[in-house]
Amino acid sequence: MSARWLIALLLLAALFGFGFASASTYDFAAHLDRQVHSLHCSFIPGLSGTDASAHGCQVTLMSPYSSILRKSVWGGVPISLPGMATFAAIAAFAVIVLVTRAEQNRAALLTLLGLAALPVAASLVMGSIAAFELHAACKQCIGIYTSSLMTGVFAALALRGRVRVAGDAEQPGTGRRFLLAFPLAGVLVLGAMTSYVLAMPSYAPYEKGCGRLPSPDDKHGVLVHVKAEAPDAKLAVEVFDPLCPACKAFEDRLHGSGLDKRLDRQLLLFPLDNTCNWMVDSAMHPGSCAVSAAVLCAGDRAKDVIDWAFAQQTQIHDATVADAGAAARMVQAQFPEVKGCMDSAVTKARLAQSLRWAVKNQLPVLTPQLYVSGKRLCDEDTDLGLEYTLTRMLKGET
């Protein structure tokens, strides 16, 4: 296949990559209004995916790896945005090579290969993170990875298959003009990122939080203390359910951001399970009452029980749906020291006091919730805006 045809195929691959990156950027930017939006998770750029296929895209979108500058910009700048600009630069340069018939120019092909190597390298890094850290498959991401690989392959084949024709001797310095593609691509990337940041709405009204704790005192000792690593950590109250998937996801994001080290956390158990919580009509998270009792009984190992419950959420849920007593047996098998304490009158009273503490502080029936120095982190800031808003709360800027 001639170099001209290979560059044409490279152009097509770059356009597909631009389409996938654009759809991914749009999905990210749509959340800047702090509302819930569907995701265009499909192998056809821009087409909405099914609930099952969108799960992987949701995981990657909400992960700390989906954007950069997250502590400086609400949500950060989506990593797909510079990818989109890079694909645009590759496509534009491919058109220039085709129009000027420079497909036999070694400098032009080397420049094209250098540009194509950028998304290939980025895809290798992001693909590894998705596979080994997030354990999630995002169709839009796979589309970007595939497009990146194809641009790299076609650029390499075009360079390898370059054939000198009569009269095609290149004079020294004639290919240097093609090197301008790199700074121009950089300008395109920086321009796209700058435009994105400038177009963002202001989040100043939300940086002061969404309410306060009217009665934060813990007279009955219902809060479970998780000691902070940083000496200047601020006191925080986290309302959670050990079998709540959203709580686990929030914990992962908080740990991934590193901000958990700066929080001296007091955990309020709020199981969304009607076997012990009179504020819910059904067991939204079956078995969470039993696991919550185990947390209260674990003493210094309370965090170990919580981490175990987060890791085993699916297994505990499925087992408890089939057998109401499964959660208690599972946690006692893992932590034998809590056996005998979980069903005690003291533990039941302490769990009831936890719920009364929630009522006294007028907490919504919702998990997770985070209060820093008495101020509630807005629900919309527990995912994409976590690093931005929480950093300001910890600095005392709000």
In terms of topology, how is this protein built?
Layout lengths: L2 H28 L20 H12 L4 E2 L8 E2 L1 H20 L6 H29 L4 H22 L20 H19 L24 E3 L7 E7 L4 H13 L5 E7 L18 H10 L4 H10 L1 H10 L3 H9 L10 H16 L8 E4 L2 E2 L9 H10 L3
Parallel strand pairs: 4-5
Antiparallel strand pairs: 1-2, 3-5, 4-6, 6-7
Helix pairs in contact: 1-3, 1-5, 3-4, 3-6, 4-5, 8-9, 8-11, 8-12
Structure report:
The protein is α+β, with helices and mostly antiparallel strands and 398 residues long. 52% of the residues lie in helices and 7% in strands. It has 13 helices and 7 strands. A hairpin with a 2-residue loop joins strand 6 and strand 7 (375-376). The longest helix is centred in the first third of the chain and has 29 residues, at 106-134.
